[in-house]
Amino acid sequence: MAHILSITPIPLLSGILWLVLLLLAMYFARKPFHRSMASFGRIIYNAMRLAASSVKLAEKRIQIRNQEVLMTAGLELAERKVEREFDRISDAVRRDLEGYPKVQRMLSEDLLKLEEDYQKSAEIPQTLPDWVKVIDAIANIKPTGDRMVVNMLEEIHQTLNEQHKAAVERHRRDVAERHSILSRMLPFWRNVKKTLGGVEKSISNLNQRSKKIDRYMDNYEKTLNQSETAARQLSSSSLTQFFISGVVLAVAVVGAMINFNLVALPMSEMVGGNSYIGNFKTSDVAGMFIVSLEIVLGFFVMDALRITRLFSIIGSMEDNKRKTIFWVLFSFLFILACVESSLAFMRDRIAADMEALRQSLAGIDTSQTVTSNIPTYGQMIMGFILPFILTFVAIPFESFVSSSRTVLGLLAAFALRILAFVLRLLGNLGFYISRLIINAYDLAIVPALWLEGVIIQKRSQAKDTEDSRDQIDREARERRRRAEKNAQQKEATE
Amino acid sequence: MRPTGLLLILIGLMMMTSCSQGVDRSRGVYMLLDTSGTYTAELKKAQTIINYLLGTLQPGDTLAVGRIDTGSFSEKDIVAKVRFDPRPSVANNQKRSFQQTIEQFVTTVKGSNYTDISGGLLQACEYLNEAGAGQKYILIFSDLQEELAKGYVRDVPFQLSGFNVIALNVTKLRDDIRDPKKYLDRVEKWRGKTEQGGGNWRVINDLERLESIFAH
């Protein structure tokens, strides 16, 4: 700095000299600088606009892909629902139709019995003999006082009374018999009513299921037509699924860690506690492997049960093969659960032994320690149950994976949108910053520009003065010429 | 992402981690106990340290305890030694047995006339090198006041590269209280010897902070 200021004996003068030189240099470089800065700004602006439009294009592509993924997932879900309902209907129809001949036979038998009973109950009771009317007419003859007639009439009266009694008795018996037949019919009626009620229930059940299928088919069609409503519903549903399955998976991870802790220590008894794979103890890796194996087996079991569809090859197998695979996998899982339960027992023993040693090393008397078997049993039960519980991780895992495709797609689209905005912003910033720099440059060389302005103004003033002088001369010459012309015309006239 | 992809990533991670296999993480500890003169009274503290080591060392680690007496460069001066079995249950039994041996030693030990620390250090180096431990620790439970008997030569340079030499419970002698420089010189002398041999030197006098033994 001192060197720069020493070009003249007075540093201030040197500074001023440098400033003047700098201003001069900047003044002469003004136009190229303006051009280059303007080009630079334009380049940034165009490049950023180009990049932004390309990013925007990518975002559009991702959005289309998201839509496709969403619709595919929606279609798959709708297909699953319809398929499940058809399965249910198929089961119901099979069950009901299988029982239908039996129902029909029961109804026929009941109706036959009812008919028989009806016929029995319809039998008309025996009427009184015809001669009773004759006797009745005779009995109604007024007594004449003849003894013989009186006796005869009394006899007839007595006979009639007896006949009447017998008829009433018989009538009562017949009525009682018909009542008993009717009361025997009652259970058959009830039976028929119950059977018909079952049929009605089955039919209404089928009706409800068919309505449900109609609804699912509507949704399916909406999804197939890629309607806005369906897209919105599916998007919100997959976001919900993503968070819920994420929470469930987090819980499952905690469960897996507990499971891992149950098996890691006893595994050191098997594979040794001093060997390492990378930075991890071999026993820990072995424990983690067992837990992972259980989870993977769970995935396969759930696929074999067609609850999840992580491996389509398992789901698309023939039923017999699928069932065989399920039982094989289940056996493995059961064996692993038993192994883990044993390991949990071993862990408890090792931990107790270690604790005893630790206390002994610390000089604490271990004979007074109260021991209980409850933790041992608890650990064994947990060791047995946890592998089966972890099997169900496949369900939230599948949901998480399928919904994460949508969520990641949405996030990627959002990120690209932001990127496009930032790129456009940068382009504009670059453009306006270049203009700002140009203006700042001009501001820095204001004295030179002012001087230039003054010089230009003086030049133009001088030019203006010269121009006005020429004008005056021209006018004088014109006036003289006109005067001469007038004089010549006057002379010619004279 | 497909589950097969996840499995491939897991397998890849496993392979990557298995590539870094080969680092020996076993620890070898050799503890030298000064049994000379009045320092024998401090052996109860040494027993606490050994118990701490027994509680801390893992299956596969090595532990040996040797005494410092008139001529410490001898296998006979190794009081107890063990390489813990990889199985934790067996290692626990070994620890119990080791504890009993030390207990017996502490109750029956008799003080020696001289203090051959250098000989003990050489013996410790030899033992740990033979044991092939990944991390080697020599703990010197002594006041670091060496007194060699007549005729004992210990001007051998130490080969302590890769060793952590830790002086424990370096008590101040009566002369040290009068002139602390003596104490500082004594500690400095052993630091110099260790560092010249390529080892790391530390002093831990506060026995409540034993966890710092394996901190480095």
Short description:
The complex is a heterodimer of chains A (494) and B (216). With 494 residues, chain A is mainly alpha-helical.
Query: Helix proportion of residues of chain A, in percent?
Result: over 70%
CATH top level assignment of chain B: Alpha Beta
Mean pLDDT of chain B: 85
In terms of structural class, how would the helical and strand content of chain A be classed?
mainly alpha
Mean pLDDT of chain A: 84
Low-pLDDT sequence parts of chain A: none
Q: What best-fitting shape of chain B do the alpha-carbon axes yield?
A: globular
Report, as a whole number of angstroms, the end-to-end distance of chain A. Answer: 92 Å
Helix count, DSSP H or I runs of 4 or more residues of chain A: 11
For the record, give the distance between the C-alpha atoms at the N and C termini of chain B, rounded to a whole number.
42 Å
CA-based gyration radius of chain B: 20 Å
Q: Helix/strand-derived class of chain B?
A: alpha/beta
> Percent of residues of chain B in helical segments?
40-55%
Helix/strand order of chain B, N-terminal first: HEHEEHHEEHHE
Tally of domains of chain A: 3
Number of domains of chain B: 1
Instruction: Work out the number of β strands of chain A.
Output: 2
Q: Runs of chain B with pLDDT <50, length 5+?
A: none
- What is the H level of CATH, i.e. the homologous superfamily of chain B? von Willebrand factor, type A domain
Backbone shape of chain A: elongated
